[in-house]
Records
---
Amino acid sequence: MEPPHQTPYEDPNEAPYTAPPPDPPAPARRRPWVVGVSGASGTPYAAAVLRALLRAGEAVDLVVSRAARLTVLDETGGPFRDAHWREDLRRWLAAGADGRPDAFSTDIDLSDVRHWAAGDLAGGPSSGSYAAKGMIVVPASTAAVAGIALGLSKDLLQRAASVTLKEGRPLVVVVRETPLPGPTLRQMVALDEAGATVLPAAPAFYAGATGIQDLVDFVAGRALDSAGVPHKLYRRWEGELGRAR
């Protein structure tokens, strides 16, 4: 009887080869939207953008400039402090544009929000290797516009915006100033040429606004449109005159 066929060097006593199990899938990498809040008037715009991002299930990295903390205090009646930022942010997001402190629920999930101090130039968003989807500067003061356009990087907000541009990520700059002087207009053109979306905080009335919050939400919604984030902040134009009335 002929012996069973064997391939060369095959050991008949060795167990058959079994491939090792595949590596487990890597956990999803967190890719936040960076939201920079500068010192211009318009903290309700920032609050509306933040609420909508969180409702859309987006992770958020928040940078509030030193000047913006004074504006938050002036426009909301409460502080924004590094050591108590979650408590202060929850109160800020609950406030309405009309000044009511309880216009929105305080039961909002902040587990996927990170706060970076504006003076922390080594913070995550300061590097292009830090994974981020893009950045929204809301509101953007003329100083922030100039700093970003000129690449000054005087704080983490400006540095993060410069990084967003150099990495080719979406950058939406919600300018809140009027009138606009020549230098600021030229800096806005420079931002546009660098790839940013320059979005003046100019509310529209065709969506059927009945209060100040509707006007704020329109601007916030347009900023999110530019960033490609879905939302339901305002009624969209559908080509029918008077539909909003």
---
Amino acid sequence: MPADPQSSLTSNPPRGSGRGAVEVRRSSRRSRTVSAYREGDRTVVLIPARMSEAEEQRWVTVMLDKLAAQESRGVLGDRELIERAERLAEQYFGGRARPSSVRWVTNQNTRWGSCTPSEGSIRLSHRLQGMPEYVVDYVLCHELAHLLVPGHGPDFWRLLEAYPRTERARGYLEGVVAAGRLPHLPAAREE
């Protein structure tokens, strides 16, 4: 297995982080983006390998603050998520789309959600947590529609037109993706 990504464990996270250890994973394949997620009692921060220790510390603090802000906004648990999906299925699909399970996952970094129609299972990316409700509802409706129509053909999009905020939510998600591609400004140098 290649040495990339490199990991380091910080046992004393910055004050106010409210969580246990912070693990920083460096990757030479990661060029500009920084991301973070909770894994049990620790926080994993993913950074480019070329970052200096000072940049690393700054980004760890930024990401811990960002995660704390998202968590304070009240994230739906898996039970609330399936209840919400059932309400949306009733409201927009006449109750025809019945998921057997709906849950958050942390292994979807390129998709907002996924569905396995044969099992009736829906998974939403943890990256949606903290986004506006109408965006989460759109992704749920998108995946619920896949329980009725596989693929993204005309029948699928006609079905999804039932959700009135489809275009707005899609625009929001496109903006999030575009913002992730913007170059990050270098850290200000202290003199």
---
Amino acid sequence: MGDSGGKSGSKQGAKGAGARLVATALCGASILAALAGLAGCRDAAGPPPCMPPAYSVTPAEARPGDRVTVSAQDATCDARYGADAKVQVTVRDAAGINILEELAPMTDDGGFTFVFTVPAGMAAGEAGVTAYPYALDWCDDTGVNNRAASGPETLIRVSCAERLVPLVILAG
């Protein structure tokens, strides 16, 4: 009984060690998969990310009634926004309230020029301008053109670093 108990214990000990080894391997694989997910989903062998091109606001200071231009050159990557692409331009006043929100035509590669007149009642102070490709979700690190579905809005941009270019509104 002592011998068979010892052998049986050894077999169960070996089985237990094997189960622990498999569990450890599965746990390790899960951790690696999670880390890979955190690193991004972009195919390393694919083209580099193609994010929207940087835009500028000129002049940097304006008075109510002045004309301001928001523009971007075409991206140097293959953006493929499409023939009917649009950019959404938003102007926020110093209190963070959207004063203007309009769509303008954009090229397939993201270039655009949008001109607006500073509204007469816009308060003096540091305002800001954002310009993003319309109906796209850019809250990832892949640079892939993630077109949002048409119809009712189902995507809400969250936890994205929003680029806000300053526009100083001078007293009229």
---
Amino acid sequence: MAEAVPQTTTAATGPSVRVPLAAATLVSAVTLSVATFELAMADWPSGFVLLAIVPLMALVFCGCALWSATLLLRIRNGGAKFALPLLIYALTLAILIYAPLQQIALQQNFDWHHKTRERIVARIEAGELKPNVASNKNLIALGDREPNVSAGGNDIVVDETDEGTYVLFLTSRGLKHYFTGFLRVPPGGDPKKFFEFEDKSPSQLVRYDKDWYFVAN
């Protein structure tokens, strides 16, 4: 008599939360990236893209967060793991509200390029670099041969005054002559005396280091 082959049974597995969890992680990561680098992305012409990206990401984030809230109904049968996606969205929202993401990105930009920008300022003061754009007497186009230290094509703005040279390294350049950037003023100089602020004081003025300011018009 043939020996009976024991039948194996597959253990029933509970419902999986991997897809909602992966979606929460991806959406939150992209949302934080956009929020952190929004200022840099505002540079022309990518500013037009940003006008679409920010509202789209807001809709996706809110929609996915609401969807994750419905998963709470499955905690009783599936376990507390179904609360994880909503917790990720809640943590992301808290970071967006309370963490100074753009300030962190600006500080990183300043620290990363500080020495290179100082060397460029020294070359300008020594007369090695001079305005080279025919249509703008205050513009130096560094081009691709120099390190990329300024947004909008690696152009820097200079203002020769009796007290010294003001040098602006752009972090963004938008429509209607809107710009942000790090302004290096001569020793004892006043950033408000930079020629771009003759008609209107800067809308943002933050000191980052000796003779260095973050400005926006």
